[in-house]
Design brief:
Fe-S oxidoreductase, single chain, alpha+beta, 5 strands
């Protein structure tokens, strides 16, 4: 059984045991101001292990999932709210 953890956004210390491609995805999110334009120093990453695979979520809803078969990480950004005057 693997336990999850939390760590600060843009921290140099990260959990051990994460695949390199997942760490690269975390770096991509943390260095691209357009991906998370409202990022604050108070945000945290949350690591959860599901069926032995890491799933990482940022406080804004950004999620990074690991695909072991392809040794790939997928970044899913939260949906943006659309202010529509005709929304009933």
């Amino acid at each position: 059984m693997q336990l999850g953890t939390r760590w600060p956004y843009r921290s140099t210390e990260r959990p051990t045991g994460l695949p390199d491609v997942v760490l690269m995805a975390v770096d991509a999110v943390e260095t691209d101001e357009e991906l998370v334009p409202d990022a604050t120093g108070e945000w945290r990453w949350t690591l959860t292990w599901l069926e032995g695979r890491p799933v990482i979520e940022l406080d804004d809803g950004t999620v990074i999932r690991y695909n072991a078969e392809d040794d790939a990480a997928t970044i899913t950004l939260p949906a943006a709210a659309i202010d529509d005057e005709d929304d009933w």
